[in-house]
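Fold Annotation — chain and its backbone
Next Lines — sequence and tokenised fold

***
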Amino acid sequence: MFENLSQRLGDVFDRLRRHGALSEEDVGAAMREIRIALLEADVALPVVKQFIDAVREKAVGQDVVRSVSPAQMVVKIVHDHLVETLGAGEPLNFNAVPPVPILMLGLQGSGKTTTAAKLARLLKERERKKVMLVSLDVHRPAAQEQLAVLARQIDVVSLPVVAGEQPVAIARRAMAVARREAYDAVILDTAGRPHIYDARMFEVAAVANEVKPADSLLVADAMTGQDAVTLAKSFAERVGITGIVLTRVDGDARGGAALSMRAVTGKPIKFLGTGEKLDALEAFRPERVAGRILDMGDVVSLVEKAAETVEQEDAEKLARKMAKGQFDLDDLASQLRQVRKMGGMGGIMGMLPGVQKIKKQLSEANLDDKLIKRQEAIISSMTKAERRNPKLLNASRRLRIAAGSGTGVPEINRLLKQYQDMSNMMRKMNKLGQKGLARHGIQALLPGGGFPR
């Protein structure tokens, strides 16, 4: 989402680092470039002006001049003001008598219904809440059935549909059922507005008056840029919202919407939709987003995602095999599946620090998720004996596997070479042991690098 902005800011900071000391002119030139970068990222002009003025005031101060590393101090100032501009992340309001009503608002096509299901899954899996999903969309064909299908996919109850029932009556029935059956939260998915001045705004207001929502979340598409900010401001004024969910932040959006939302509306961004899958919703944490913008990475989120997706028993089993220098193609397939669960190579690399600086090399390496799926297909086309002992894979077997997986023999050869490199690394790590790894450091993890010969 912030790819272009990250690259532009990275170039600015790289130039600053070439100066041992920073003059006021150096800082002024950097601020002009940062201003242009923010405007090109579609950040609202008043927000840009306020941001640049605040950063410039501190960047020309004595703390920077006397700093051991002035450029790094400027980076820290920019980081801190990014966090301040993005606003503090705020959790959902559960300080109410259950069932807590949560109202989902938004324009048609913003991803509101899918986001409602994502939020239900997050509350069920992470917060251990008993959640009910309710569709109030009686206008769009099959909208209520769509939410019911999503509810079944995440194993959450959806309110049964009664033909002809109107939104306020549906909401009233949902709250009554939820109270009777001791639900913690009720997520009410309202009909998408065709535009902000639609008559259906009165419908939303009537529902809100009926259920008294603890949270009214506006679902806005990050791809719409400043239109999303205008939308949020209008909904806040006309209906009232307590927070924003920004969807499609994994797309080609320039990032300005996220940076402008809090400053323009005064309402916090509470969640980010990071993909199409139903687990692709994360709580908004400004310091982590600021880290991604400045190419510092978001290792904390990466570790959290790994903890959610890794099966503890499988991880311990693989660790024991690696300790013995054992690693077969079943283990490689398991690792490939793990990468996909964590959002693919793009999702993982986006959370690592310094990725923007090696973007060209990563592009040339062709680390796409289609390649991972093809490699999984190749391994799945092998027999159990072949996966355990790749030495069995002669020319005729490779032809059979290629036909079965819809790939070619060269791809199978590349996969086996990759496997062999990883297997060799495991054996060398086993020989080095803990003292050897401590002595040789990170080089011990690089194939062909740092190993005793």
